[in-house]
Structure formats: structure tokens, C-alpha cells
Amino acid sequence: MLQSFKGDGANAPVAIQREAYSAPAFWIDTVDLCFDLDPAKTRVLNKMTLRRNPDVPAQALRLDGEELNLARVLVNGAGTSFKMDGDKLVLENLPEGTEPFALEIFTTCLPSKNTKLMGLYVSNDSFFTQCEAEGFRRITYFLDRPDVMASYTVTLRADKAKFPVLLSNGNLVEQGELEDGRHFAKWVDPHKKPCYLFALVAGQLVCREQRITSRAGHDHLLQVYVRPGDMDKTEHAMNSLMASVAWDEARFGLPLDLERFMIVATSDFNMGAMENKGLNIFNTKYVLANQATATDVDYSNIESVVGHEYFHNWTGNRITCRDWFQLSLKEGLTVFRDQEFSQDLCAEASARAVKRIEDVRVLRTAQFPEDAGPMAHPVRPDSYIEINNFYTVTIYEKGAEVVRMMQTLTGRAGFARGMKLYFARFDGQAVTCDDFAQSIADANPESPLATLLPQFKRWYSQAGTPRVAARGEYNADAQTYTLHLSQSCAATPGQSEKQPFVIPLSLGLVGAASGAALPLHGTGSAGENHLFVLTEQSQSITFDNVAEEPVPSILRGFSAPVVLDFDYSDAQLLTLLAHDTDAFNRWEAGQRLALRSATAALASGTNGPVLNAAYVEAMRAVLRHPTLDAAFKELVLTLPSETYIAEQITLVEPQRIHTVRESMRLQLASELHADWEQTFADHQDNGAYSPDPLSSGRRALAGMALNFLCLAAVASGDALWPGKTLQRFKDAGNMTDRFNALQALVGSGHELAAPALARFHSLFKDEALVLDKWFALQAGAPDRGGNVLPAVRQLLAHPDFNLRNPNRARSVIFSYCSGNPGGFHRADAAGYVFWSERVMELDSFNPQVAARLARAMDRWKRLAEPYRSAACEALKRVAAKPDLSNDVREVVERALAD
């Protein structure tokens, strides 16, 4: 099993090392669980068949457990001696040899008091489970590790009136009545699984059902379970599930392998969703939607998350992780699959491009800072103290980019061949990232991936974001253009030296004068796009027959998760923005121009106009462009976030960044005022509501126009547009338009925001997810004279606020501490004091949520004074708490480390 190493001090957290992995001393073949469900005291009878692992020296059986009351232990039906070693149940007198033996363990647990929401817990008078990563040990004593895969039979017994629905993994084989108004349901999962994929649900639930026939001709029952009253919000989730089933079978030949597939929604959930075999448990945020309560973004997120959890059925469930260091084996791969799914559902190329830009924006604003901070870790980490802290954007989003590069290097068809080989080799097993990469390479022996596989796998072992420096030389006489490329990667905690990565760079050339896409000669192809694979520290590539001086379009489609350094002139960026055929680099050119203006203003300390006339005119041209997709226009006109701007400078003054970005917004609002009016007029009416990409894009652009029009109105004292915006808020026929109008009023700071917020609350006071939006909007509002923190403290005292509900806690506290840098980083340190109070308060009952909040201070060392010293004091205050959880301690101590 995984070995543990203690640091100095008796209470030092335990560090788990990847290189210390060893196979389990015992295998568990079958598990028969019987639950007598009672919120105050649930009884769990666990009957297992085990056998010794012949490849491991004979040793005691050490079973994981946490907060369990042990009543009985039997081996082959007879009592046996045992001992407790901390939380572990240790059995030494077990049968010799490798023949199977029976182990029976009877325990009780207290679901109603389980505030960690890990293991078996109660939410709104219903039972739910969350076992990933190490929650099953809170249900029964077990070998709680992913490489122990067993067959499960589960019997659930409960009061029928209180818990009429009884669900578990697999197929329902029997159900019936019991004495005293109780009933039972028996479930059998035909597929072996690790215990982290176990699930049960019991409660007052209703369901939407859909019967489908697969491409292979098999019939299946799909079910979405929700609380009574939410049935009208389940259609989109069901449609997304049906689309996911069809896509996975069509794209990768992976069919649904159970008679039924179930989704259950709960409002108390630490994560987004969980892929338990055949019984996915979801946060309500990613299931419930109708046009009155959910925005276009909600619809898109539901589609993506439903797809993600369903795709885990094969990439995570049928083939799972050998150990938790291999987490990206399932998560990175499945994020890639859900991204491909969402892109494939887009009917037009422009919508696919928008989806790609949105994904990259998440990577660059969340994962790149993580790569540069104290919690930096490889896609396959080398050690951890608390595994829950490593469900990160590095594991998920960067892991997905690593898989995407494999597809880029092997081609779409080649990658599909690799997936087929992967399942042929490892179906039903617990394996590693190396096993996956080897399968993709072996299926494509002529590909660059196969040739470069040992070097490519540095993406798994090296932390940090590589930087690619590029320099171009044009020889007009010879009509050649040479790109000189080099790569580097900064040191990260525990890794001072980095070896060169394999970096696929998609390249093109755009005529500086003509704006035309130039053919690429001398590269082995004469098309307009070339894939260059950078493997050395420095390499060059030369293009022939280049008739005019080009502007290089490098890293098209964001072909690798790197930072590109190229000294583009403003004129070159304007050329790419106007003419590049690659949508990503067209958007990127606009971002670079805006970022350049912001950093220049920060360096000079100017308080005047930030954006130059050429940039403003370029944005005007984008708005007026007759054929560009509305969603793409909205992305181009969205300025880089304050967080992303902060990552581009050495010494960060958050208040100054906030002031500069607000100045940029006001300048766009004022100088493009007539264009915003026309844009709103052209996009305000979209007919009957549909969450499709085209309609969503039009609503997004109309919402942006309202935001800018209200901003300009407040600056000029004009009451026209705030009044129109309030009326649109009142008349809106869908949540997207209504919330866009509310955002415009709140974001501009207009006095009409207060009555609009009050009206919004009165309309949706009984809709928990909508109230989350209401709370988050206020906590994330632009800070004007330090007004946000007092408002946030008032929100905590609001009757509808509940700190113990993760969604509600995130809506206020995370929106402020993590999503509102201008309001959070206060010179008087009050924001940091608030953060430390909330981290310690949350840690007392839900360490997992507390640890995620603690990450808000990852980048404190880059702050200017007085922020830096105050942030350090806040971190030390949390670290000094004597009963701090390992979850939070790991985060704050790494942040404080030199």
C-alpha cells in the first residue's frame, strides 16, 4: 500500500510519496453491503471475500476507517482478535495461503452529524454519499485505495414513508416490503470497481425517465432524480445525457454498459458532480435549468458536466487509477473528452472556436497562476499530504491539454486508434498515466508522439508553464522567413532544473500589407498551416517563397499550454486581429493589445485615457463586422481580467490594477457609445428562448452592450440607459436577459441597482440556485471606496445565507475573496482578516471547502506593500490555529514556505 512519511514533530502532517507505491497485501473480490438507514445511526453490515496477494510478503490486514463505531468482526463466520492503530483496523490472525476467506464487519455511523459531506451524509432529509477520494472509509472499514477493485452487491433498508427511493450502483435486482413500514432494494453492479465509485441515495425524490436504444441495439433506461418541485428543470440535463451517450458511442465506440444510468441532484455537495458507477451524484447547479432560472452559461455548464461524468464511465470507471498520483489519468482525459463533446455539438466552426477560447481562458487565468505559485505540482504529482487538495486545475485543465497535444501529434483518427488500444489492454484494471501514453503511442508508431514519447512524458513529471520565445527574420531578396524558437521553464517548488518539453506549435503566416493567408513552402506542405514540434532548447524553421513580409501567427488554436513571447508591434497585432484565419490568435491579438495598454498605464502611473485610438477603432471594427459571430465579438471586447493582468507584472498593486481596468472599461463605454447602442438594438430581440450557441452569443453581446451603456450613463449623469436597463430587467422572458440587466445596473453602481436587487430577491427567494447568483453578484461587484466588504459582511447575516451549504458559501465568500481582487485586497488588511476568519470557521466543519478558500492567498508574495505584509500575517494567523485540518494546513504552510 502507499507508505507514509512523517515530518518533524509528533503532530506533523503525513506526506504520501508516489515513488513509495506498493501493491496491496490483500485483494477484495466481492463486497456485500447491507444498510439499515437512519439519519441518527445507520447500521452497516459489510461482508467481504478477500485473498492474500501472492506478490506481496505476508503481513497483517490494515483496513482504513474514520469516525466509525465498530460492533463486530468475524473471519469465516467466527470471532477473531483485532486491534486499532489510530483509525486503522488491524487483523493479524488470518488464514494463510492465497485461498479466499470471508470477513464480516458490522459498524455504525452518524450521517446527520457528518458536516464534512464525505462518506454517508444527510442533506434535506435525504441520504447521499461522496466517496472520492477517501470517503468510503467513513462508511465501513475497507482497503480505501483505487487499485482494489471488487464486485458489489448492496441492500438498502429504510422507512418507506421517509425514504421511498432507494438507489445504489448497477442494476436493481430485487425490491419489496419489510415490517414496520420499512422497505428494501437490492442492487448488483456487474462491473468491478474501486470503493471510491460506490454510491447510495435514499430520500424523497422524483425522476424524469427516458428509454433509449443504443447504436448497438441495446435498450437502456436513463433517469434524472431531483427533489419534488424541480422536475420542470430536468429536461436539459436529460437531453445532455442522451447526447453524451450517443456521442461516446459514435466518436470512440464506447457504449453504455448498464441497464440503467442514473443522475441524482443534491444541494449540499462539495464538488460539481461525481461519476459513481451508474449512479452519478450531482450538485444541483449542474442539473437544474429552465429559462426562467438558469442563464445560458448554466445551460452550457450542465451540458459539459453531464458529459464529463458520463464519459468517466469508461475513462475512470472501466479503467481507473492505480493510485491517486495518477488522478489526471481519468480527470485530464475526461476533461479533454467533455471539451471535444461540447465542440462537436457546435454546428458552426465559429462556435467551436468560441468554446476553445473559453477553455483556454480558464487555463490561463487559473492554471497558469497555480503553476507559478506555492501549490505548483506536475500533472502527475510526486507527493501530497491531503489528496483533496490535488483536485486542481493542473490535474484537470492542464491534464486535458496534455491529452490534446497527444491528439495533435497523432491526428484525430490516430488518437481514436490509441483509445481503442488502451481499452483493449486495460479494461477492468487500475493503471497509470504511463500506460495511457504508451497505448496512444503504440497505436501510432509513425507519429511524432511515438518517436518522442519519453521526452513527451515530461509534461506529466515537470511542473510549471513553459515559455516559448520566438523571433522572426524576413529576407525580402531571398523571399524567406525564418522563425527562431526557444523554450524555458521557471523553477517550481521541488524542481529547480527543467528539461525541454515536446511542444507542438501550430503556425501560419499573414501578409503584413495584404492581410492574406500566405502559403507555407519549405515545410513539407504548401498549405496555410504547419505543425512544428519544438523539442530542443532552441530551434529554427524557414519558410520559402514568402512574397511579402509576414506577421507570424504562432500557437494557433492554442496548440500547447505555454506562454508565447514574441515582440509583436501594435501594427502586427492589429493585422492579426483583423485578418488572421485562426480565430484563437485573432482573439489573442486583441487581448495582447489590451494587456499592453494596461501594463503601460500601470508602469507610468497615468490616470488619463489608457487605450490608444488604434485599439478603440479596432474594437469598433469588430463590433461593426458584418460576419463575425456575436459570441466571438463578445470575447474580443472582453478586457483581460484583473487577475490575468496581475500575472503579467512583477509587483502587484491590486487597487491600482482595478483602477486601470475600470478606466479601460469606461473608455470603451464612452468612445464606442453609439456602437453599443446599435449593437444592443441589433441583438436585444432573439425570439423564443433557446440555449444554442448562436442565440446565446447574441444575448451575451446584448448584455455586454447594456453593461457599457450603463457605465457610460453613470459617468455622464444620463438617466436614459439605466432606466431602459431596469425596464429590460423587469420585462425579460429568460434569466440570461434578466441577469444581464441586473449585472449592468450593479456593475455601473447606479442607484437603480438597489431596487432591482430587491425585486430580484422577491421574485426568486425560493430558488436556491438563483439566490446564489444574487449573493455572488453583490460580493463580486466593483469596489467603490471600500464598499464591497461591508456589503459582504451584511450578506453573511442575511436570513438566506447558510455557511454550511457549499454553494451558498462559495456564492458570497469565494466570490469576494477569489473573484473580486479589487475589493478583497484592501490597504487596511480588512479583506485578509475576513479571509482568515472564514477559513478557520469553515475548517471547523468542512475542511475541503476551507482548503479551497485558503487557495485565494497562493500568490501573496507577489503583492506590493502594504498588502504583502498584511497577507503574510493573515496566513500566519490561520497556520497558528492548533486544530487546523491537514487540508488547510498543507495549503497555508506551502504558501508560507520560502
Automatic annotation (TrEMBL):
A Pfam cross-reference name: Peptidase_M1
EC class (word): hydrolase
Stored SUPFAM superfamilies: Leukotriene A4 hydrolase N-terminal domain, Metalloproteases ('zincins'), catalytic domain
Recorded catalytic activity of this chain's protein: Release of an N-terminal amino acid, Xaa-|-Yaa- from a peptide, amide or arylamide. Xaa is preferably Ala, but may be most amino acids including Pro (slow action). When a terminal hydrophobic residue is followed by a prolyl residue, the two may be released as an intact Xaa-Pro dipeptide
Gene3D superfamilies for this protein: 2.60.40.1840, 3.30.2010.30, Neutral Protease Domain 2, Peptidase M1, alanyl aminopeptidase, C-terminal domain, tricorn interacting facor f3 domain
E.C. no: 3.4.11.2
Keywords: Aminopeptidase, Hydrolase, Metal-binding, Metalloprotease, Protease, Zinc
Keyword Metal-binding: yes
Domain Peptidase M1 alanyl aminopeptidase C-terminal: 570-897
UniProt domain Peptidase M1 membrane alanine aminopeptidase: residue ranges: 237-444
Cofactor(s) in the UniProt record: Zn(2+)
Signal peptide interval: none
Domain Peptidase M1 alanyl aminopeptidase Ig-like fold: residue ranges: 464-566
InterPro entries recorded: Aminopeptidase_N-like_N, Aminopeptidase_N-like_N_sf, PepN_Ig-like_sf, Peptidase_M1, Peptidase_M1_dom, Peptidase_M1_pepN, Peptidase_M1_pepN_C, Peptidase_M1_pepN_C_sf
Molecular-function GO term, any one: metallopeptidase activity
Biological function: Aminopeptidase N is involved in the degradation of intracellular peptides generated by protein breakdown during normal growth as well as in response to nutrient starvation.
Family membership noted in the UniProt record: Belongs to the peptidase M1 family.
NCBIfam families in UniProt: pepN_proteo (TIGR02414)
Protein name: Aminopeptidase N
Species the sequence originates in: Rhodoferax lacus
